[in-house]
Amino acid sequence: MPRGITTDALLSPVDIMPTLLGLAEVPCPAGVEGLNLADAALGRRSDQQDALLIMKMLPGGNPWIINAATEWRGVRTKTHTYARLLDGGPWILYDNKNDPYQMKNLVNDPAHKALRDEMESRMKVLLEKAHDPCDTKAITKYIADQSKTSLRAIHTKPLEP
Prior knowledge:
Number of domains: 2
Number of helices: 6
Distance between the termini: 44 Å
Order of helices and strands: HHEHEEEHHH
Low-confidence stretches: 151-161
Helix content: 25-40%
CATH class of the largest domain: Alpha Beta
Structural class: alpha+beta
Strand content: 15-25%
């Protein structure tokens, strides 16, 4: 890869494996989620996706004021970041171009209601695409069903010292 390449491409964790395989010119296995963003990494293009699903899957964590004490889901575009708390509704809306450090939350600003509604709709489309019901119990059940393994059973045997 040439040095000094910058891009405004949106990269999600699920895109890392397909992108690395693409850069190595190795075919990505069928059924792998994510996009091959090798062209973005090489500076050729950055328009493969215009929005990413972002989330906090489980409650807790620090710092709670920045990351919330509860689960949330959101969407990140090249221009905005929006998220909603699963137990409370819209939480944040930032203009990433004019406020790159996300200091001014626009979520309750009436002048940005249409944008908030648009971002909510985009998030719902991405949630549906990801098969995310926004329910941690349902997600745990889905993972267990897909793996044919009880997540609880994985840690039933004590670890050896």
